[in-house]
Amino acid sequence: MIPVVSRVEMRAFDAHAIGACKVPSLVLMENAGRGAAEVIEREALGGRPRGKRVVVVCGTGNNGGDGFVVARRLASRGAIVEAWLVGEAPKTQDCQLNMDAFAGIGGRVGRVDLDGSLGGRRAVLGKADVIVDAIFGTGLDRAIEGPLARLIEVINEMAAVKVALDVPSGMNADTGATMGTAVIADMTVSFAHPKLGHVTPHGARLSGHVHVVDIGVPASLWTARSADLLEARDVRAVLLPRPIDAHKYRAGHVAVLAGSPGKVGAALLCAHGALRGGAGAATIVTWPESATALESRVVEIMTARIHEGSELTDQIDAALVHKRAVVMGPGFGTGDGARAAVNHVLSTFPGTIVADADALSLHARAIEEFSAAGGRAILTPHAGELGRLLGMTSEEIEADRFTAARTAAARAHAVVILKGAHTVIAAPDGRVVVNSTGNAALATAGAGDVLAGLTGALACTLTPFEAAWAAVYLHGASGDAWKEANADRGMTASDIADGLPGVYASLLNVGHARGERA
Ligand SMILES: NC(=O)C1=CN([C@@H]2O[C@H](COP(=O)(O)OP(=O)(O)OC[C@H]3O[C@@H](n4cnc5c(N)ncnc54)[C@H](O)[C@@H]3O)[C@@H](O)[C@H]2O)[C@@H](O)CC1
Ligand SMILES: [K+]
């Protein structure tokens, strides 16, 4: 997993590097700027910097200092570079020294007169191949307004490739939100670690592709991080090879409490996700009309009937015998019977419980009720559902997804999967993992049902937290495989499930080892 840090953590990392590790700040800045210049040369200038026009827009703090290093480095590679200082004079010594060093090699330093017209500047920016945004980094502490905001809007209008240093100026490094206005970059070079804001839906749109460069201090020296970004090897490590004598029930039997008349598709997709996700068996536990509708359609999936009324809890208990995980909610309904069923499972089922869709709606403003599961529940809300659980709007959730997920996990004493681009998975003990897979192809009806079923399948053998993050990763990876083979659209929820064996094959490389499969 890759550590993802907050603004405060990053500033503490820098202070540690300079103080305890005795690496001079000027060296860190040189490393940062050199790393960024290499990324820009390779990714934005096609490996041919000579004769290309680059404008580096520098603030007066250390982000601006990084900008002057980039300017000097690219100039020495043959690019035609202008560096602009936005403000009267550098405010930090390292910024001043690097501005002088750029001027010292014959570089042109211009000053942007924020009170004047930006007309002349606009013409120069219009001719640039690359614009480097070095106005603000982690020092941003208030909304950008007035002439500075206008300058950023002008940068955003330009056709040049825009590269942000550390964070796009105006992006909140912790939440990804725009503070006043923000640079919309094609790519961002982040120093030492990715920042939380880079891995939020809004921040990812501002940042473009994020490259992380080393600044010469081992990341391992510093363990404080707000979240971890998933990598393929993390998922590979928890997916243990199956023994040669795997049995369908040892591989895990998932119960799916889902479906109501008109919504049996949700139950089917969920069970299909569980089976393609590796469950040995799946049983849909549902109302009589739904069971009748399902029985004519399912082959590999079993059904069990439950009725509203006095027999309900006994019927559920009988249906859940020997199940390792229950997924409840997809298309299940929100009536009295559904409520009684969901609450009964929460307070009695000994395995892992995945609560999705209607199981979440039933507990609006009462997220604490999930603590009845004693830490064995996994909740799978999108921002709207989590908003209802916490009594907030979905905009308030999106404004700070990390805090929302962490708060929800603590209050529910459950694992929370906050869905969206860069899904956040939070554990009740405060650990937070961010997903690195997935794309717009996954925005399709029923995708959530498949994720819930897949999570249930993995929960048969993994802890709730591991099952949650591994499922999210695999689900996204199925979307990525679809996009690679087709496009970022046209995928159905069944396709997501059907893509899972291929994802397993590429992760585990088991395609050739058929003898080991159950
Ligand atoms: N030694 C270090 O600490 C290192 C820092 N590095 C760079 O330094 C950056 C942080 O530098 P700084 O802490 O100097 O901060 P910034 O360069 O991000 O910001 C500088 C100044 O902007 C002002 N400011 C904040 N918000 C504003 C607003 N909305 N409108 C107008 N002015 C505003 C602040 O008061 C501050 O003086 C990092 O993002 C990174 O790019 C790198 O060089 C690596 C090493
Ligand atoms: K920046």
Automatic annotation (TrEMBL):
Assigned keywords, A-Z: ATP-binding, Isomerase, Lyase, Metal-binding, Multifunctional enzyme, NAD, NADP, Nucleotide-binding, Potassium
Pfam family, one: YjeF_N
Cofactor binding, note field: Binds 1 potassium ion per subunit.
Regions annotated as coiled coil: none
Signal sequence coordinates: none
Family: In the N-terminal section; belongs to the NnrE/AIBP family.
Protein name: Bifunctional NAD(P)H-hydrate repair enzyme
Job description of the protein: Bifunctional enzyme that catalyzes the epimerization of the S- and R-forms of NAD(P)HX and the dehydration of the S-form of NAD(P)HX at the expense of ADP, which is converted to AMP. This allows the repair of both epimers of NAD(P)HX, a damaged form of NAD(P)H that is a result of enzymatic or heat-dependent hydration.
Required cofactor names: Mg(2+); K(+)
Catalyses which reaction(s): (6S)-NADHX + ADP = AMP + phosphate + NADH + H(+); (6R)-NADHX = (6S)-NADHX; (6R)-NADPHX = (6S)-NADPHX; (6S)-NADPHX + ADP = AMP + phosphate + NADPH + H(+)
Gene3D superfamilies for the chain: 3.40.1190.20, YjeF N-terminal domain (3.40.50.10260)
Domain of life: Bacteria
Cross-referenced CDD domains: YXKO-related (cd01171)
Database matches in InterPro entries: CARKD, Nnr, Ribokinase-like, YjeF_N_dom, YjeF_N_dom_sf
Residues reported to bind AMP: K419, G420, A421, H422, T423, G448
Every YjeF N-terminal domain range: 10-223
Residues that coordinate or bind K(+): N63, D133, S169
All residue ranges annotated as the YjeF C-terminal domain in the record: 231-507
E.C. number(s) listed in UniProt: 4.2.1.136, 5.1.99.6
GO biological process: one example: metabolite repair
